[in-house]
Amino acid sequence: MSTRIDLAQALDTLGSARRVLLCTHVQPDGDAIGSLLAAGEWLRGIGKEVLTVCHDPVPQNLLSLPGWETVRKPHEAEGRQFDLGLSVDASDLARIGDAGRYFSACPVTMVIDHHTSNTLFGQHNYVDSLVAATGNLIIRLAEASGANITRTMAECLYAALSTDTGNFAFGQMDEEFFAQMSRLMRAGLDISAAARALHLTKAPEDVMLLGRALASLAFLKGGRLTRMVLRAEDFRQAGATPENADRIVNHGLNIRGVEVAFLATQEEAGVKVSLRALPPHDVSKVALELGGGGHMLAAGCTLRMPMDEALALVESRLSALLS
Ligand code: 5GP
Ligand code: MN
Asked: Distance (Å, rounded) from C-alpha 251 to C-alpha 88?
């Protein structure tokens, strides 16, 4: 049975567990790894034994986060006993990849997330789509438990909050959000250094791949929709991996007159589609229809079909959205 729970019930569920398997989504971003590491530090601090796992390695741009090396491969959970499986920032079971079988094997499962498309795949689901980042929910929980936000936690939580708001440019940034940010500052966060490491500094491959993506930019629907494409050849020429494509899609949206943008990247599993929109458009509906998910203004999916078919399919769905 799966139920929505509130903050107090989430703390109760955590309170009855000692050994916790903590996991997050595949191709993790700053909110995924930031929330994972901060929750791990908090739970260890209150006496729990925690194994933090992720299907994919921690991406290069997050290696400045303290404790990133504590993130293990899911198979390290093999043969171990847990009281609780806890997933952060993932909208559905498929999103946690290989961690899913170990999560599902736990006697109790709990989900902490902020995606509107969350399927409530835990037995207990603390899901609040009114917060900008899953990190906001970790701060709420840690503070409500009486724990101190350490400097390490603050650095990880800053990564969570700043990533999911495009470095404080969009998303649900309300008074609670900045009150929480202020408490991260009090905990010793060096925001300029962290912003440089996380948001300003790019790998050479990031910039080379961006160049190729921009060269592919096409304006559709009278300039209201843009498309960018990254094929295998682009990755080869840029010396890049799919990780380097992170956030490139935003360049297609942040152009005058554009309302919706998408980037299609050729990956091993298929064509990964990243969707972005300005209000009032809702691209999560399109992503859900195509087997993915996400938020109203930022969503995605992977299509198992040739690139040209994928482009035609996504273009027709997005054109309909704009009609
Ligand atoms: P991005 O385009 O940056 O990879 O993802 C944007 C948003 O869409 C993220 O919040 C992410 O969780 C969601 N998303 C991207 N791809 C998928 C997918 O294949 N399945 C689901 N459920 N969500 C996705
Ligand atoms: Mn998130």
From this structure: 28
